[in-house]
């Protein structure tokens, strides 16, 4: 227990900082592009990998896992070492963590635009990448816990607890949500179906927000805010209490994302109840953060770092107040599927995560490069333009959400919808989309200014090197030598070992528990009339997933008069028993598609896909012309069907054997339907002739992607179009 | 719907882990002093390599900031001002 | 910071500032500390907080006893050849600078590996290598840098106070289980509309069992670990034939558990597990809130906390050795150094004894003793070293034997019955009558429901809210008082305080300030020269009286005396060119001994001609008169002073008419006096300071110690009042009376809930939901009510 000297690893922190800023810009830019796609749908016309449906997941993943993720690592690696007075457990793991994470991001940036997606929000990445994520994450955890074991500071500062919670929970969430059966190298089907899948997804989805965007940042807040303000946190006691209560409650709140869905009522109410309770611990954190700065407001006025942090914490307060509010059924009835939610998440993302990250960067960079911030003026500019950006982004979105939601529910005296055509409700809010785009641009400009400022700072500073520090190792005092006093490190290491073992335990235990749920035919009250998708429809469904249609179109009709009137019979849990994965969606930029089957002719769909505005003028849906042209590779159908069978979908062996034949017949039938439209017939024949003359090998319509998609769309919801279905409960 | 019970199981298990962690950390006296740590974390403890030759590595960054301050005056003074403003919330004592 | 304030400790250094390194220091001590810090790159200390330091006073050989292996073994928390760990109490710890410098000790002594401060407790835990350094070195280092640890006989007895965290565990378990059980029972509530009978909700019926048995499992640790305290306490109560509040609670818990369990076994319903866990959780929460401890105070101090661990014994061969105080025997020769405490009664052998007994007798001025005089334990030698011979051992000494008195053994809390318990009795009887009469009714009306009703009554009537009322009210009061610098031992003290009808005050140090005293000059006018001469003469002397007189006199320009002589125990003499001055006792300056021996006076004569004398008077705390006036309206008052009657007239002038005044009261007398009052059925509050009041404080129903510096000296007591708040004392007493009123009101409130609940119970229609709603609702509303009420009360206090 002599005093030892050691170096804090600053290099890895620096790398993460760079990554944070780089991916931040990327992710935000993609977001901005999406914002403009709302206004100019044709912006990336015909370029499949730049279409809205494929970029949306890229945006969410880039900002959450690339920008915020790297920020978390940067902050954690910086603070953990100093709080525990020890270098990170293993430099190899640190670097593995860094490079692995960047690799994953790159992989995501490639696969998502190419349409390889599981379509589960914030978990879109396909199974090989999921495994990689699990690996890297565990590496991070081992590194963190290892550092805790060899720490030289007896007390574990509250921030460390937050980091630990983050690691454990995210690991568990990720693994259980990503359980899927692979079909091919980059294609898999979720092991859960319909309602179950939805529940798991949002249990994950909510907790991903809780434990990836909240707890780690609370940890960072508890380190960097006191540091920047140079005064101890307002009440350390409170911070401890609020940590433990947060941990115990947060995990339950998931189901509030599925209110009025086909999820059992009591499960929904459960979500509501716990979401409401959440407000207490959340605000505990916010108050603690803000009060830390009480009496230092003079410094806040001068120091941009603190300014960012103040807004960040305020944003957290607003978001965590709005969350419980939104989980109240009657509020949710309005807000769900609308742009209100977009506003809500962006308050959290732009203010809480974004601004805290910026504050952190402004604080860390000068210290690590042993210099001063190049320009406080620019930092202040960044702050103000950023704040303005947030306001310009969120306020219009609230208005938009409200307006549209109300229009959806607006009835004429005679009981018909005032805005029967969904498009009317879209055109109404275009101005808001404009403002949102502007707000977003301002925010990004701010971020770029920061990068410039940071570059200048780095130039002026000396190169980053690991800092030397010294502290004595913790002394192991054998228990009996000093009976009565409880300060033994071996005891303190217990929680760490516990967490390791317990995590492993859960993974095994969880796996054991899950196998039956996968293999045993899920005991949903099934509806006799509900049948599995035909091979062609299944392929079509995969196209629907590939193009990310779920990003704008829900497949969940809630039991409201307005929705039943607009879309048809409300959803029953039984309808989704064969949906691996579920495609309920969470946003209605376009109308719900659950009951779209048979609503329009096949030709309508063809034309709509080729040029949406032609069928519905003023639509902001981009064109999916490539689907009309490209041949559809359906070679995998047998494996797909077999996978489905393992997941409990009752395909008979002969169905699987004649899959191709079945597809051909259905495709040809659709092709025939298409001929019913003279224009189509003439154009199509013309193409065919032209191809023949120029010896271009011609793709029969029946072999094209569009046909499969039409097949799927026409099937949607038709199973129970028959009036007054009775849910016959049958457990097989 | 069996999956609900799976999630329920996992959630409870996770909760229990944290609960055990809580009990053990209380036992090990982690929360006996619920104030000093919040001040301790404010002190930077980096030493400066170069100066280790000067006086057997007994030179803290702060003193280094000072020596800088001879050259880059304002930076150090800034640092000092910050240090000055540390206050304890004595409220905790009563 | 003011420029002529010490850079280290911030004291005004008007007298002789020391200039060093472009900074000024009040004394060499401060300068040295600064030097140590700056030369070890610890000057960041001054950046953290300006003038955080204290000027060190090092007493030669004071810590020699730390060489004694036996003593070290007792002091250190852990000890082997390579490592010693010691916890030291350092009163001076007060700001972040302290934390920082103390945790960087190894920059001063490399063989100190770690040092960790516990700020709230003002303690430091030091790991060091005994091969390279020693406890003594460490302590001396701390003293050198102005952080003198406070080591007393108390530490020697080293009773390891093992922090009891069981309540925290129980609370944790109850809370955790409560949360989960609530989570598990919600579904059934939300699904009431379609209960199993009416088809019900598919999944729920499917998995009902899982939910219910999980709830059961969660409730087990709550009932059998977290809740066990209530069973034992109820059992104890019944054994001693008292129906305390825990009896109905325990009853409620048992019934809740048994009924709920049988409900799920026989599939009657979900049971009341949420109410059960919730109930226990809230109760424990109350308990937890109630125990507010001031980790930096101690209410259990006896003489041990003030006595040194060891003294220097002089052997026949004039050799000195340190020996443990406990080993001092009759006839030992002891060396008492400057500022050291006299551990045992004895006879002064030689040396110029100037002993401050204020701590023991309340006598404010130091007394001078000549060799052969008897000197008593607890006195503090003020100037130079003296040699004495022990007449008694420590435990038999005049002061210390006070603690052999029984009052220090038994704790008064056991005797006192709290408001809650007193109501518990009636409540239990009431509940049981209701339960039985209701079941009797049902036996005739519809026997099938009897059991249901009976249990339901006991469940719903479980006095959770009542049990919460007083913990939250008093707990909150305790905190409010704490903020006002009125620190109470426990919530019970507030209840006691509310009942007192008599208040007894000690004089010196309690209603007078220990610090400044005022002197009035009586006699012939002094000329300018004489004043100058006087001031300069006094300047040379360091007798306490001279010093205080020096401070009182007007500024004079400093001149060096031609002659200066100090006559020990008599006075001082100084002269500049022709004029000479004598300052000291009456006969020393040549005045015929006069009657006013009661008052401390300094007599003056110039050129052998008597001029007059400065008479010292106690300075009374501000607002004494008001406090007494207010109190006299509701309470009987009296003064018990260890002092002589010198102040009688002034006191009578100051205090309300006919306030009984008793002087020359020895500690045992005070104790007896209070006892006699109590025997006449009086509820007595004793307000005092110093060890001489310890007996009285312990004997009284409520013993309040007044302290100028709460962190250091205060005898065993129930409450410590910061001297600056003395004038508020009365308002605090009234506040505690009001607090009791609040409790009574919340009793009424919670009884109303019980009535509502009982209605459902008696009519046999108690659904788990109702219980689940009613129980937390009542508890929470009580908590809210009491908190708001007490805070309003607190607002009024100053």
Shape of chain A: globular
Q: Which structural class fits the helix and strand makeup of chain A?
A: mainly alpha
Task: Indicate the percent of residues in helices of chain B.
Answer: 55-70%
| Counted beta strands of chain B | 1
* Ends apart, CA distance between termini of chain B: 53 Å
Mean pLDDT of chain B: 58
Beta-strand proportion of chain A: under 5%
Query: What is the averaged pLDDT score of chain A?
Result: 86
Order of helices and strands of chain B: HHEHH
Number of strands of chain A: 4
Number of helices of chain B: 4
Low-pLDDT parts of chain B are 48-94
Largest sheet of chain B: none
- Parts with pLDDT < 50 across at least 5 consecutive residues of chain A: 478-493, 512-523, 722-732
Query: Considering DSSP H and I runs of 4 or more, what fraction of the residues of chain A is helical?
Result: 55-70%
Shape annotation of chain B: elongated
In terms of DSSP E residues, the strand content of chain B is under 5%
Rounded to an integer in angstroms, the radius of gyration calculated over CA atoms of chain B is: 23 Å
Structure description:
The complex is a heterotrimer of chains A (732), B (94) and C (798). Chain A is mainly α and 732 residues long. Helices cover 64% and strands 3% of the residues of chain A. In chain A, the strands form 2 sheets. In chain A, strands 1-4 form a two-stranded antiparallel ribbon. In chain A, helix 10 (304-327) packs antiparallel against helix 12, helix 12 runs antiparallel to helix 13 (376-408) and helix 12 (339-368) packs parallel to helix 15 (430-460). Chain B is mainly alpha-helical and 94 residues long. Chain B has helices at residues 2-27, 36-40, 61-71, 73-84; one strand spanning 46-47. The radius of gyration of chain C is 33 Å and the shape is elongated. Chain C starts with 17 loop residues before the first strand and ends with a helix. Classes of the chains: A mainly alpha (732), B mainly alpha (94), C alpha+beta (798). Chains in contact: A-B, A-C, B-C. The interface between A and B is large, with 76 and 55 residues. Strand 4 of chain A pairs antiparallel with strand 1 (46-47) of chain B.
Question: What is this structure's SSE topology?
Answer:
The complex is a heterotrimer of chains A (732), B (94) and C (798).
Chain A: E1 3-8, H1 10-39, H2 52-84, H3 91-111, H4 127-149, H5 158-177, E2 180-184, E3 187-190, H6 194-229, H7 236-250, H8 265-292, H9 297-302, H10 304-327, H11 329-335, H12 339-368, H13 376-408, H14 422-428, H15 430-460, E4 467-472, H16 489-519, H17 535-546, H18 561-567, H19 602-610, H20 612-615, H21 625-629, H22 637-646, H23 653-657, H24 659-675, H25 678-693, H26 705-715
Antiparallel strand pairs in A: 1-4, 2-3
Helix pairs in contact in A: 1-2, 1-3, 1-15, 2-3, 2-6, 2-12, 3-4, 4-5, 5-6, 5-7, 5-16, 6-10, 6-12, 7-8, 8-10, 10-12, 10-13, 12-13, 12-15, 13-14, 13-15, 17-26, 19-26, 24-26
Chain B: H1 2-27, H2 36-40, E1 46-47, H3 61-71, H4 73-84
Helix pairs in contact in B: 3-4
Chain C: E1 18-20, E2 23-25, H1 28-39, H2 44-48, H3 69-75, E3 78-79, E4 84-89, H4 96-103, E5 112-118, E6 123-128, H5 135-144, H6 153-157, H7 166-190, H8 202-226, H9 228-239, H10 246-265, H11 273-290, E7 310-314, E8 320-324, E9 333-336, E10 346-350, E11 353-356, H12 358-361, E12 367-369, E13 374-375, E14 380-381, E15 386-390, H13 419-445, H14 450-460, H15 464-483, E16 486-488, H16 491-499, E17 502-506, E18 518-523, H17 528-540, H18 544-552, E19 563-567, E20 571-576, E21 579-584, H19 586-589, E22 601-606, E23 609-617, H20 624-634, E24 636-640, H21 648-654, E25 661-662, H22 667-679, E26 684-688, H23 694-699, E27 702-707, E28 719-722, H24 729-762, H25 768-796
Parallel strand pairs in C: 17-24, 17-26, 24-25, 26-27, 27-28
Antiparallel strand pairs in C: 1-2, 3-4, 4-6, 5-6, 7-8, 7-9, 9-15, 10-13, 10-15, 11-12, 11-14, 16-28, 18-23, 19-20, 20-21, 21-22, 22-23
Helix pairs in contact in C: 7-8, 7-11, 8-10, 8-11, 9-10, 10-11, 10-14, 11-15, 11-25, 13-14, 14-24, 15-16, 15-24, 15-25, 16-24, 24-25
């Amino acid at each position: 227990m002599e005093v030892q000297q050691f170096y804090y690893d600053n290099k890895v922190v620096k790398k993460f900082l760079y990554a944070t800023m780089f991916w931040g810009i990327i992710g935000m830019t993609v977001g901005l592009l999406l914002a403009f796609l709302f206004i100019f749908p044709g912006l990336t016309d015909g370029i499949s990998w730049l279409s809205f449906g494929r970029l949306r997941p890229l945006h969410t993943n880039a900002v959450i896992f690339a920008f915020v993720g790297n920020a978390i690592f940067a902050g954690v690696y910086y603070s953990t070492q100093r709080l525990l007075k020890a270098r990170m457990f293993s430099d190899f793991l640190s670097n593995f963590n860094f490079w692995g994470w960047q690799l994953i991001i790159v992989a995501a940036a490639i696969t998502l635009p190419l349409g390889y997606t599981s379509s589960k929000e914030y978990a879109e990445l396909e199974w090989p990448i999921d495994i990689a994520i699990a690996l890297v994450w565990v590496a991070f955890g081992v590194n963190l816990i290892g550092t805790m074991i060899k720490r030289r500071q007896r007390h574990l500062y509250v921030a460390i607890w937050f980091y630990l919670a983050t690691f454990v929970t995210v690991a568990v969430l990720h693994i259980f949500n990503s359980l899927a059966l692979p079909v091919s190298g980059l294609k898999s089907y979720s092991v859960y179906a319909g309602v179950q899948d939805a529940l798991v997804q949002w249990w994950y989805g909510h907790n991903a927000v809780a434990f990836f965007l909240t707890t780690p940042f609370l940890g960072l807040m508890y380190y960097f805010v006191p540091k920047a303000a140079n005064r101890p946190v307002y009440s350390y006691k409170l911070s401890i209490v609020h940590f433990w209560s947060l941990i115990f409650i947060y995990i339950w709140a998931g189901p509030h994302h599925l209110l009025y869905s086909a999820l059992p009522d009591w499960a929904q109410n459960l979500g509501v109840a716990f979401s409401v309770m959440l407000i207490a611990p959340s605000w505990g954190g916010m108050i603690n953060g803000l009060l830390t700065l009480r009496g230092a407001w003079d410094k806040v006025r001068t120091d941009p770092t603190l300014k960012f942090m103040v807004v960040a914490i305020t944003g957290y307060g607003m978001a965590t107040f709005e969350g419980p509010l939104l989980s109240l059924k009657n509020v949710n009835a309005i807000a769900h599927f609308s742009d209100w939610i977009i506003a809500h998440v962006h308050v959290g993302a732009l203010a809480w995560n974004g601004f805290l990250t910026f504050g952190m960067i402004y604080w860390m960079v000068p210290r690590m490069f042993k210099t001063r911030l190049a320009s406080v003026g620019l930092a202040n500019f960044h702050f103000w333009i950023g704040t303005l950006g947030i306001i310009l982004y969120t306020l219009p979105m609230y208005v938009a959400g409200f307006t549209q939601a109300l229009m959806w529910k607006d009835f004429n005296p005679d009981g018909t919808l005032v805005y029967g055509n969904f498009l009317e409700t879209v055109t109404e809010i275009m101005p808001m989309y404009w403002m949102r785009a502007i707000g977003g641009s301002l925010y990004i400009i701010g971020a770029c200014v920061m990068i410039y400022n940071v570059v200048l700072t780095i130039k002026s500073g000396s190169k980053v090197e690991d800092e030397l520090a010294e502290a004595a190792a913790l002394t192991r005092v054998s228990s009996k030598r000093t009976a009565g006093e409880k300060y033994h490190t071996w005891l303190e290491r217990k929680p760490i070992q516990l967490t390791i073992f317990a995590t492993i335990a859960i993974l095994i235990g969880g796996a054991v528990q899950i196998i039956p749920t996968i293999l045993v035919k899920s005991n949903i009250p099934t509806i006799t009339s509900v049948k599995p998708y035909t091979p062609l429809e299944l392929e079509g469904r995969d196209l629907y997933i590939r193009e990310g249609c779920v990003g704008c179109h829900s497949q969940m009709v809630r039991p409201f008069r307005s929705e039943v009137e607009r879309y048809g019979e409300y959803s029953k849990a039984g309808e989704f028993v064969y949906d691996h994965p579920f495609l309920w969606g969470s946003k209605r930029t376009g109308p719900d598609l659950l009951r779209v089957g048979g609503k329009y002719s096949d030709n309508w769909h063809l034309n709509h896909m080729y040029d949406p505005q032609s069928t519905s003028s003023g639509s902001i849906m981009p064109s999916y012309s490539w689907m009309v042209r490209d041949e559809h590779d359906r070679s995998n159908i047998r494996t797909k069907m077999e996978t489905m069978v393992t997941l409990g979908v009752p395909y008979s062996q002969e169905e699987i054997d004649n899959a191709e034949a079945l597809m051909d017949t259905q495709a040809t039938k659709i092709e025939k339907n298409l001929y019913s439209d003279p224009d189509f017939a003439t154009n199509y024949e013309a193409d065919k002739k032209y191809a023949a003359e120029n010896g271009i090998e011609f793709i029969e319509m029946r072999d094209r992607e569009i046909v499969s998609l039409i097949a799927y769309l026409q099937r949607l919801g038709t199973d129970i179009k028959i009036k007054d279905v009775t849910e016959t409960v049958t457990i097989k | 719907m069996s999956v609900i019970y799976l999630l329920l199981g996992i959630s409870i298990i996770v909760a229990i882990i944290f609960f055990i962690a809580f009990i053990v950390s209380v036992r090990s006296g982690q929360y006996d002093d619920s104030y000093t740590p919040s001040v301790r974390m404010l002190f930077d403890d980096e030493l400066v390599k170069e100066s280790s030759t000067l006086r057997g590595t007994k030179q803290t960054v702060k003193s280094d900031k000072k020596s800088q301050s001879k050259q880059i005056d304002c930076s150090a003074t800034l640092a000092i001002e910050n240090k000055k403003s540390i206050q304890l919330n004595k409220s905790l004592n009563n | 910071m003011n420029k002529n304030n010490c850079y280290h400790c911030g004291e005004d250094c008007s007298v002789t500032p020391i200039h060093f390194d472009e900074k000024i220091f009040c004394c060499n001590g401060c300068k040295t500390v600064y030097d140590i810090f700056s030369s070890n790159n610890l000057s960041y200390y001054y950046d953290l907080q300006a003038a955080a330091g204290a000027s060190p006073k090092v007493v030669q050989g004071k810590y020699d006893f730390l060489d004694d292996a036996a003593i070290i073994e007792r002091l250190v928390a852990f000890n082997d050849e390579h490592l010693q760990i010691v916890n030291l109490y350092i009163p001076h710890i007060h700001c972040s600078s302290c934390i920082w410098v103390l945790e960087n000790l190894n920059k001063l002594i490399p063989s100190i590996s770690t040092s960790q401060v516990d700020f709230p407790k003002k303690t430091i835990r030091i790991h060091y290598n005994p091969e390279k350094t020693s406890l003594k070195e460490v302590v001396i280092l701390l003293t050198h840098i102005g952080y003198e640890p406070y080591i007393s006989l108390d530490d020697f007895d080293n009773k390891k106070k093992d922090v009891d965290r069981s309540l925290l565990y129980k609370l944790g378990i109850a809370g955790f289980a409560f949360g989960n059980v609530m989570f598990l029972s919600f579904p059934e509530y939300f699904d009431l509309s379609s209960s199993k009978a009416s088809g019900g909700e598919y999944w729920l019926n499917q998995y009902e069992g899982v939910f219910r048995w999980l709830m059961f499992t969660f409730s087990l640790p709550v009932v059998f670990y977290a809740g066990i305290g209530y069973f034992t306490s109820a059992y104890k109560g019944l054994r001693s034939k008292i129906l305390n509040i825990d009896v109905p609670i325990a009853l409620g818990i048992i019934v809740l558990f048994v009924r709920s369990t049988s409900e799920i076994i026989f599939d009657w319903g979900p049971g009341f597990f949420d109410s059960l866990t919730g109930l226990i959780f809230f109760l424990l929460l109350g308990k937890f809130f109630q125990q507010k401890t001031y980790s930096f105070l101690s209410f259990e101090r006896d003489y041990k906390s003030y006595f040194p661990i060891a003294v220097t014994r002089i052997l026949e061969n004039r050799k000195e050795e340190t020996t443990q105080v406990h080993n001092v025997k009759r006839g030992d020769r002891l060396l008492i150094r400057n500022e050291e405490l006299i551990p045992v009664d004895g006879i002064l052998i030689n040396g110029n004894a100037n002993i401050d007994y204020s701590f023991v007798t309340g006598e404010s001025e130091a007394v001078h003793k000549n060799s052969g005089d008897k000197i008593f334990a607890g006195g503090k030698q003020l100037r130079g070293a003296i040699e004495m011979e022990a007449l008694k051992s420590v435990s038999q000494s005049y002061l210390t034997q006070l603690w052999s008195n029984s009052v220090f053994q038994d704790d008064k809390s056991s005797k006192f019955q709290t408001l809650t318990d007193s109501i518990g009795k009636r409540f239990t009887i009431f509940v049981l009558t209701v339960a039985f009469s209701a079941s009797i009714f049902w036996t005739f009306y519809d026997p099938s429901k009897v059991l249901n009703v009976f249990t339901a009554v006991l469940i719903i009537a479980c006095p959770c809210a009542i049990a919460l009322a007083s913990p939250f009210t008093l707990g909150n009061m305790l905190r409010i008082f704490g903020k006002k610098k009125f620190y109470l031992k426990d919530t019970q003290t507030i209840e006691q305080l509310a009942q007192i009808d008599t208040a007894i005050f000690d004089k010196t140090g309690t209603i007078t300030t220990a610090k400044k005293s005022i002197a009035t000059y009586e006699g012939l006018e002094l000329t300018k020269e004489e004043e100058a001469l006087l001031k300069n003469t006094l300047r040379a002397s360091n007798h306490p009286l001279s010093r205080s007189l020096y401070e009182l006199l007007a500024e004079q320009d400093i001149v060096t005396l031609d002659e200066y002589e100090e006559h020990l125990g008599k006075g001082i003499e100084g002269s500049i060119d022709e004029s000479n001055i004598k300052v000291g006792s009456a006969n020393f300056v040549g005045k015929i001994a006069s009657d006013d021996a009661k008052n401390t006076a300094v007599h003056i004569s110039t050129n052998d001609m008597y001029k007059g004398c400065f008479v010292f008077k106690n300075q009374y705390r501000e607002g004494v008169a008001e406090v007494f006036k207010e109190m006299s309206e509701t309470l009987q008052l009296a003064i018990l002073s260890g002092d002589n009657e010198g102040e009688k007239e002034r006191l009578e002038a100051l205090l309300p008419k006919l306030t009984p005044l008793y002087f020359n009261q020895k500690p045992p007398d005070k104790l007896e006096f209070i006892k006699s009052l109590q025997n006449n059925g009086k509820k007595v509050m004793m307000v005092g300071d110093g060890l001489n009041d310890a007996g009285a404080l312990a004997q009284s129903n409520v013993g309040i110690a007044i302290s100028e510096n709460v962190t250091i000296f205060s005898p065993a007591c129930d409450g410590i009042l910061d001297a600056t708040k003395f004038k508020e004392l009365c308002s605090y007493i009234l506040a505690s009376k009001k607090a009791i009123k609040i409790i009574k009101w919340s009793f009424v409130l919670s009884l109303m809930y019980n009535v509502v609940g009982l209605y459902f119970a008696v009519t046999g229609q108690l659904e788990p939901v109702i219980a689940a709603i009613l129980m937390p609702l009542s508890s929470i509303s009580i908590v809210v009510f009491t908190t708001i009420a007490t805070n309003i009360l607190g607002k009024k206090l100053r």
